[in-house]
Amino acid sequence: MAMLPNPLPDLAAAGLDLPPGSLVDATLDGPWHEPLLWYADGAADPRDWAGLRAAGRRVGLLPVLVTGGHRDQWPEDWDLSPDSASYPGDHDADEVLAGYWREYADDEVGGASSAGESGEGGERSAGPGPWPGLAPAPGREAAGTTESTESTESTEDADAVAAGIAGIVAADADFWPGETRAALVPARRSADIPAAIGWTGPMNHENDVARLCAVLRSWEDRYDARVVLLGFDTMVVSVGRPPATIEEARALAAKHYAFCPDNIDQSPPYDLEAYAEKAVLDQEVWSFWWD
Fold it and tell me: 115: closest CA among 273, 234, 243, 8?
């Protein structure tokens, strides 16, 4: 992972007034040469994400909520492996997802029927069918605005949605994966946060989390997505521009399957069509879990 100047070793010099917390440098291979993240000692307040976003962005730190989950497993016990993470910008989201599609789609969405087609006699064709490519992004209502204005407004809107989702997550520890705490990570963009800390939550699916971050970058650009929460093997993403039609949702659901097969294979209703309708269409929150 390409290195940024890291203000975490001297937060006071960075001018940040933070609550009591811990710097995490623990990895699978022993202490890292510098902290990978800071996280608070106490439970997150619903306003923490927005406050940390405003304070941290000027020094190169981005907010994320972290959770110990039901096993009370906090970041120092996450088996972080920054040495295993490359740079997200070195990977192409379409190529990454196409590879996952070929590897995982056959069993669950196999055959041309996954695109609404069938072989001779109405039977499914063998194999998962060709990779359909990246899903089209929802259109913007941007008439009369310049590209620069549109980009600024989009960023502000996406951050506002993320702050709202983070507030909901922080306020309801019983519904979400347990208590959450506010954290700061040195990263250029929200999509890079997992790679910046060497997160290994999807290890059974992908050894280099930067490849998944390349997909998150694409979703950040196309859907105004933000990584709002990380746990040992869970991720919650806010979505500023979710798919608004069932056709868009179905197309994106296939990409979710390539990104995280366990969302469909091991989570009710175990059906891609139902997942598209219930978990993607008009949804401002996407949750992912890897076994």
Answer: 273
Alpha carbon 255 to chain centroid, angstroms = 13
**Which two three-digit tokens encode residue 107?**
């069993």
116: left (phi over 0), alpha (psi -120 to 50) or beta: left
Instruction: Give the pLDDT confidence score for residue 107 in this predicted structure.
Output: 57
Q: What is the pLDDT of residues 31-49, one digit of tens each?
A: 999 999 999 999 999 999 9
- pTM for this entry: 0.88
- Type and span of the H or E element at 230: strand 225-230
Sign of CA dihedral 260, 158, 37, 197: positive
| Interatomic CA distance for residues 147 and 212, integer angstroms | 28
| CA neighbours closer than 13 Å in the CB half-sphere of residue 259 | 24
96 vs 101: CA distance, rounded Å: 9
Q: What is the DSSP code (8-state) at residue 112?
A: G
Contacts of 3 (CB under 8 A, 6+ apart): none
Tokens of 284: 């401002």
